[in-house]
Design a protein that fits this description.
Blueprint: H1 4-11, H2 15-23, H3 30-43, H4 49-56, E1 61-66, H5 74-87, E2 91-96, H6 101-113, E3 118-121, H7 131-138, E4 142-145, E5 154-158, H8 161-173, E6 179-183, H9 189-204, E7 214-216, H10 221-233, E8 241-244, H11 247-259, E9 269-273, E10 287-290, H12 293-308, E11 317-320, E12 323-325
Parallel strand pairs: 1-2, 1-3, 3-4, 4-5, 5-11, 6-7, 6-8, 8-9, 9-10
Antiparallel strand pairs: 10-12
Helix pairs in contact: 1-2, 1-3, 5-12, 6-7, 8-9, 10-11
Length: 339
Amino acid sequence: MGTMADVAAAAGVSISTVSHVVNETRRVDPRTRDAVLAAIASTGYRRNALATALATSRSGVLALSIAAGRNPYFGPLMRAVESRASELGYTLMMGDSHDDTDTEKGLVGSLLDRRVDGLIMAPAPLSERETVPMIRSSGTPLVLIDRLSEADVDQVASEGAEPVARLTAHLADIGHERIGVLTGRPGIQSTAERIDGFTAAMERAGLRAAPRHVRCGDSRADEARVQTLAMFRARAPRPTALVALNNEMTVGAMRALRELDLRVPHDVALVAYDDFEWSDLFSPGLTAAAQDVETIGRRAVDLLVERIDGFDGARRVVRVPTTFHHRDSCGCEGPRAGV
């Protein structure tokens, strides 16, 4: 592997000129630059990333803090972020916050110690009070993803209330009056927003969900299963339709309904916020609001890199629309008698 001195000799320039080309610290005549780049290719020289970071105050690394193992939705989101970062010449460093504030603070502190150029974070509960101020005080550019906050930082997330309202209204429109809901983890903005959408649609339809039909599934499949079993085992009239407010809880609800020998949609209609890549393979197909994960991930990286490059304007909050996938699990023929 060649050295910077080898490159300088091959190009017939000084080592400082090679350094300016490699690190982009000063404008170099285009012909000289081309000669240096050709010499780099011929000598096999690779820049020292640490030395470059010291010279330019940039590491070429972005960081992502996310609850990677908690929700399958985050997998495609991570891939979208990594792909866009790579296109823009950055390496992505990722860590799992486990949706826990203390874990998140430790992870973010470690990432900041590594002098990353910027950070994208799906905030855990209480993040706005604890983790976000720590990042802001470090001066590191930050973009929040998936969950919005009152914090004065750039943010990107899907629309939440309107898609849930549309799913719920669809159930009401086809005749369901007893509609249950599995809500997500408390303390997270997306949970509150989706609940608002459900409540608004029920009120517009002249309906009110019974308290026993509103269950917290904590955004987890296992808890959603437990809560669905409790909801449908109650002696009082059970729901004829169920809205799951994320894809993990949809899985839990499906498992519970199968245990109870309740068929979708013949015995109970099921709709969900969050789609799966393989939702159309379900039998019946799942009626769902699908998030545009690719756009969310790429837009977050773009906002972050703009901040790294010096943009100093007011915070930007980007809301990405969802897509309504109308399949078979809603039934579209109203609740069955006797259910």
